[in-house]
Amino acid sequence: MKNIRKLALSAVLGASALAPVAGHAQTMAPSTYVNAPLAAPVAPAQPKGHCGIFETCASTKIGLGRGDFMIRLSAVGVLPEDRDSKVWAGGMNGPYNVVSGTRIKTTNQVMPELTFEYFVTDNISLDLIATSTRHEVAAEGAAVGGKLDVGSAWVLPPTVTVAWHFRPHKRLNPYVGVGGTFMWFHNMNAAGNALNTTKLNSGFTGGPSINAGVDYQLVGNWFFNFDVKQMFVRMHAWAENNDESLKVKAHDSLDPTVVSAGIAYRF
């Protein structure tokens, strides 16, 4: 009996000693592995689509503004007004007498024209036109028998214009401008006529000009342009015969109206 009590007491003491260890084991959090979230795969960069020269793309700049440079090819009509003419005739050393009722008449002409334009600001641009036109020149009046062919001349009239554009960065952009015109006459040929003139010359001249026009963006960097210029230029010319016994002088207010329409490309 005594042995049984000792055995029971040993069992109780052993259980009490093991209880804290079991409790501690139960309270310990099990080890776990946490997987990090996977990053979404990055799509490879796709090459941007090519924007053709005759296409309007998302990257195409609308309208015209500061820093734009354009080259324009146009058909230009030069229409001399011949507002006021005076003609004198005399010997090589004078005196010269006014040929009453006689005026100078210059023919109209159509030629290609090249224009270079740069936008200094969104509203202000500078442009230079380059062309050369050939004109027939005649004297008209009773004193010359109605009409007398004088000859022909080529004219080189570079014109620099400062223009104000009303609607920068818009497809339709009207403008007005002021500038200056310089005129050189070259390849002048006298016509065979009753006065037997064989030499025809003219001096360098120039004058102010005004203009108005509009640019319209067609597609991409292509623009349509329509422009009207009024130039105020006076010509001084003279014709002589072979033996220089006759010299004819003429002053003529050419004042040409210049109308052009063409296609421009912005760089």
- List low-confidence stretches: none
Largest sheet: 8 strands, antiparallel, barrel
The share of residues in helices is under 10%
C-alpha-based Rg, rounded: 45 Å
* Count, helices: 1
Average pLDDT number = 84
**Order of H and E elements:** HEEEEEEEEEEEEEEEE
What overall geometry do the principal axes of the alpha carbons give?
elongated
Largest sheet: spatial strand order: 1-5-6-9-10-12-13-16
In terms of DSSP E residues, the strand content is over 45%
Category by helix and strand content: mainly beta
Terminal-residue CA separation = 117 Å
Based on the structure, what is the oligomeric state of the protein chains? single chain
Strand count: 16
